[in-house]
């Protein structure tokens, strides 16, 4: 099969022929229909993710068609169109039994701990636990764009922060996760302010219905959010994983506010100084979140399929497999608005 192979940190991916993946017991092999290109893939590309060993195929935001079914699989058949979370849980451990698949000790992560979906085919273990059928109305590029961005934002807003209608949501970072949080937050009835340093991203957020935007280059972004919201946001989302936005998100909250760390603190940012005095005096709740369990997909897919939220504005670029290197390199600087999705695996 054709795949984009990472052979050196920060080096262009090598688009080459590699062996098709074996079908695991209890798992399936998917023919990849589309795969998102995410900032988490950039972390792998830079060498910041300790789980990644070279050579490696990145890619964790995928959807596809079942091409092979391993022994023990009962729910899936050849030709099924499916999507999977980027954390593949075993389905049998105590955490999985409690519904907490994102902390499964036996988890597998395509694109990180095993070969990913920057390729024509990808192996998906634990298929009965993790796969979800795609609605017939959902295009593959949108399904792939849900990947870790939309699903992680959905989990952050509904599973961690319990965002309520009428609350103010502050989103720090206007990339894929941030735009997902904006669109989902509005669908849940919240008022949303988006903070970024890229004027094009702020304009994009405003065009998608943000109640307000803040250019963090212009001064104290947290103070600006508190002024816009009349005392502070009820919920803040950090969507970059860097100290400036993490501190800003915390300081933007009103008392008893909730902050969710979505951005992955990696490399030099794996340890941060945060204002614990603000946490203490404001009686703030701080949540970490990573991915979303497969059993939560139906509620999100129903919201989308029912026409209650339009996520198509997320997708800015539909690209070829050979374009993946340029898209990853773009994350070195403030990236342009929107998500890039690989839809052509032949070029």
Automatic annotation (TrEMBL):
This is D-arabinose 1-dehydrogenase-like Zn-dependent alcohol dehydrogenase. Residues 8-342 form the Enoyl reductase (ER) domain. Its cofactor is Zn(2+). Keywords: Metal-binding, Oxidoreductase, Zinc. PANTHER family: ALCOHOL DEHYDROGENASE-RELATED, L-THREONINE 3-DEHYDROGENASE. The lineage of its organism: Bacteria, Pseudomonadati, Pseudomonadota, Alphaproteobacteria, Rhodobacterales. InterPro entries: ADH-like_C, ADH-like_N, ADH_Zn_CS, ER, GroES-like_sf, NAD(P)-bd_dom_sf, Zn_alcohol_dh. Belongs to the zinc-containing alcohol dehydrogenase family.
